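User: My collaborator sent over this chain with a note saying "see what the structure looks like." That's all I know about it. Can you take a look?
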Amino acid sequence: MQTLGFSKKFCKICSEVNRYQGDENREKESDILELVDNFGGLVLDRPERKGFPIDEALNLIENRNLKGRHNKYLEKFKEFMNLKEGVAA
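Assistant: Without extra context I'll predict from the sequence alone. Here is the result:
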């Protein structure tokens, strides 16, 4: 991607979102985008299934998608989504 003109940091973030470079010294943006990508993929309807409810999506992220992985913003993301859920109710 650098050959297309993207910065080295941007390329690092993109590779870290999918954990191609491991779990150490990740950019904060990588952790944030990882959560958003996982969450969006779970709550949106797909041709093969309906989207998961927010609480179930958060559970899947924590206990399946990111099981055994450290994401420094996971707890804050869950808190934020639970607050949002309370506002929407």
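A starting point for your reply to your collaborator: The chain is about 60% helix and 0% strand.
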